[in-house]
Amino acid sequence: MRNFAVRKPIVFELMLIVISFVLTVVASIPFQVFYFPNEFSMALARIVVGCLLFVIFFYCFRKDRQFSSFPIILPGLLFVIWNIVNYLMTGGQINAPDLEMIIMAAAPAIFEEVLFREIFICHLKENGMKPLMIVLVSATVFALIHLTNAVNGKMLQTLVQVAYSFVIGLVLGAVYTRTDDLFTLIILHGAIDLSSRIFVSNASAPFHVLILFAVLLIFETAYALWLTNKDQTATDH
User: Fold this and answer.
1) Structural domain count of the chain
2) Preceding amide of 75 cis, omega within 30
3) Which of 128, 212, 119, 98 is nearest to 173 (CA)?
4) pLDDT at 148
5) What pTM was computed for the model?
């Protein structure tokens, strides 16, 4: 399995994504038996499957590199700050965090960072792919998966989320490619999701807020590419 993952990392990742989502659906059934809501059951299942993937692909995990991303991960905190600023500028509501909200935020953080960063980038690296290509490929696959949200019928909102996910994937991928620091990325990803649940903004944002959002995405993209290019230059030398 490892040889195939190294030779065909993109094909392997796509297969693993499908298998992981199927396992998530299956794993959610026992939680639904105990009358947990469907969305909460899926969140718990994603944590279970994410931990299972972590155990299976433990060879990708660098124990000596954890919590080594500071300070290069600090610009990623702007995503958290944006959720607060967006709320302040557009109105909305504040939800008091509770255990359920924390679990709902932790689920994608664990599941997606293990699946899209640790496993995928590990095999792309072993394939000999350059850092820039690793970051672009992993971010693209991560973003395209969010097209599944189009089932809600809101295509424009889904496309914005895909673009947002692509930029987040660039930043997290650039940091992981450079540091192999999984735990810090899980914490940052969880903080981004949790802050968006606490600070719920108004869906109809004025034009100047959209401009500010675009500036954020451009800055984060530039930072990720700069960080990746710096890493690639060091690798080439």
Assistant:
1) 1
2) no
3) 119
4) 81
5) 0.94
